[in-house]
Design brief:
Elements: H1 8-11, H2 13-22, E1 29-32, H3 34-41, E2 49-52, H4 56-65, E3 69-74, E4 79-84, E5 87-93, E6 95-100, E7 105-109, H5 113-118, E8 128-129, E9 135-136, H6 142-147, H7 156-162, H8 166-177, H9 184-193, H10 202-213, H11 219-228, H12 230-234, H13 246-256, H14 262-267, H15 274-283, H16 288-299, H17 309-317, H18 321-332, H19 339-351, H20 361-366, H21 373-388, H22 395-400
Parallel strand pairs: 2-5
Antiparallel strand pairs: 1-2, 1-8, 3-4, 4-5, 6-7, 8-9
Length: 403
């Protein structure tokens, strides 16, 4: 591996303009962290962040003077966002931590690249490159990047005590960038300090979990989280259910070209228990859309694998389509029925167009039915008859049955 990066994103005029602007007058600016790591590992680069010796006030003054938009997105931590030609870059002043409490850090601005690197958590994140693509590795993290070793900088327990969210970041980075096994000292430190995760906001925990489950294959990370007790600490609902379904789901994604679905992956290690899913959603303050999908899946009954298409569609008519699909996908990875039968039912779901019940309440009132609970009762009976007919009874047949 060369110690120089040569990729199109680095040559983009907006980024080159920003780096040139920040380096005027003897100052320094470099791309930091994730973009450098991903470029070296041959992975996509989505976000490009920049570190600089300039303090935030001077970054803002230079950018505004050059006619660029500046947003003080995290100025209390030394970060502002500069927008050039529609591209947004987070620009952060070099820093060193002076005080940490396991959740937040007080920082001092610095001009020392090694100090800035040392306040990061993992060796593979402590890399920089300049406008020419030259890579700077102040802590010797390059071998870990090349070997895909997820390792804390210096003492693992010290890094974690600075911010307990780093426990989950350790496993999330292993899911995305690691191979073989995580660093042994890091695993031990995560196991020792897992109870401290309870001191974090549930929003931060959910953010890390959702990123972890979105990795190309999170199953190995989930295994190590189980063995260290970290998984039980953040997802106690999984404790007596097991994680054995995760790898079969990964295989189904590959064999049948299923789009990766981070929430479905999480469901695979959770029990289909509506009360537990409601409790989980409340505990983690999940977004309503996520909560509804979890609960909907748990509430949906499993269809008979031997049903013919008409019977299946009668069942499907009464279900939430997303919940039915989730239930079927997870049923396909267990041995409750031949996989081909569940896959066939999934095809039926994709082709299904929900029929429209042809009767409205006003139709019954026009027939002389008295307004009130009776209308709802008759409507329900008629709909049941219509569904059981395979949606074949006509409007006229249904109304005639009320005479």
């Amino acid at each position: 591996m060369s110690d120089k990066i040569d990729q199109p994103w680095l040559q983009k005029p907006s980024l080159q303009t920003l780096l040139s602007l920040l380096q005027e007058g003897g100052e320094e600016a470099r791309v930091n962290g994730g973009a450098v790591r991903n470029a070296i590992m041959g992975m996509p680069v989505n976000d490009v962040d920049v570190s600089t010796t300039l303090v935030p006030r001077d970054v803002m003054l230079r950018a505004k003077a050059a006619g660029y938009k500046v947003v003080p997105t995290g100025i209390e931590h030394g970060t502002v966002t500069v927008v050039i030609d529609g591209d947004a870059f987070e620009v952060t002043t070099l820093r060193s931590d002076v005080e940490t409490d396991g959740r937040h850090a007080k920082v001092l601005y610095s001009r020392d690249w090694e100090l800035d690197a040392r306040r990061r958590d993992l060796t593979m994140s402590a890399l920089y490159c300049d406008a020419d693509g030259k890579v700077y590795d102040p802590l010797g993290g390059m071998p870990d990047v090349l070997s895909k070793t997820v390792r804390f900088i210096d003492d693992a327990e010290t890094r974690i005590r600075e911010d307990y969210l780093r426990i989950l970041r350790f496993f999330r980075f292993f899911a995305w960038y690691g191979q073989f096994r995580p660093d042994a000292e890091g695993l031990k430190a995560c196991a020792r300090l897992k109870e401290e995760l309870a001191s974090l906001s549930v929003e931060r925990i959910w953010m890390e979990l959702s990123k972890l489950f979105a990795a190309p294959d999170p199953s190995r990370a989930i295994l190590w989280m189980r063995q260290t007790g970290v998984l039980t600490a953040v997802l106690p609902e999984s404790e007596k259910w097991g994680i054995d379904n995760m790898q079969p789901l990964m295989r189904m994604e590959q064999e049948h070209n299923w789009a990766p679905d981070s929430l479905l992956r999480m469901m695979s290690i959770l029990p289909p228990d509506p009360d537990k899913m409601k409790s989980l959603a409340t505990r983690l303050k999940l977004p309503n859309k996520v909560r509804d999908r979890l609960v909907g899946w748990a509430e949906t009954p499993k269809p008979d694998a031997d049903w013919k298409q008409p019977e299946f569609e009668q069942w499907l008519y009464r279900q939430n389509i997303q919940a039915a699909e989730d239930r079927l996908r997870l049923s396909a990875i267990v041995t409750d029925a031949p996989v081909k039968k569940r896959l066939r039912q999934l095809k039926w779901v994709k082709r299904f167009e929900r029929p429209v019940f042809p009767i409205k309440g006003q139709d019954l009132l026009n027939q002389g039915v008295q307004a009130g609970p009776q209308v709802s009762e008759i409507m329900q009976k008629l709909e049941n008859d219509w569904v059981e007919s395979g949606f074949n009874l006509s409007r006229e047949d249904l109304l005639a049955s009320t005479d």
